[in-house]
Give the backbone structure.
Amino acid sequence: MAERLEFREKLAGILALCASQNNITDKTTVEEYFAEDNLSKEQMELVFDYLLSQKVIVKGYVKAGGSIKNAEKPEDVVRYTQEEQDYLNLYEQDLKGLREGDPLKELLPAILSMAKEMHRTDIYIGDLVQEGNMGLMLAMEEHEGDMEALLSMAKESMQALLESQEETKKQDNRMVEKVNDLDEQIKKLSEEMGRKVSVDELEEFLDITEDEISDILKLAGEELPPEEK
């Protein structure tokens, strides 16, 4: 886990560096940035793939392969947004450019297939693919050559992203419930008292602190009710 977080920080670092240069860098700069990590050729290929997916121009880098034909699957059109479909078309074109004998020629299409199977409408498929590729990149440190283990770790990374997204959604739903509940309680107390209730009164009746009340109201775009003079 620590290695994964550290590598995420490195990716965020190179991305920030590129952003400071108008999303333009060069192959040598990227290789030097990751030099101390001793990444394999396949892992560096995934790093470049990640940068390209983030709209970074990498001068001097040419993805292995020859001419590319347009790739579009009719069954994908309905399942994805236009942005996702455009991403998939370009990504599949890139995959066709991988040389025969390159380990990634089998691994990346397999990860893409898993991403399509696991895809949900509430998450961008490009994020799912890149999460799988990141898992693959990290797995190569320990399981190079073991196709099953590499894909298993890639799938675990994608599943972790989905679970994180689900947890975020649950937290958002719980907060919405808190906002709605507080709003109802404020209206109820105001009707019973025939006036706006004070913060002290809310704290007493609802058994929550002023800070909690303030945080919930801010999410609803409201302010704390004024104190009675």
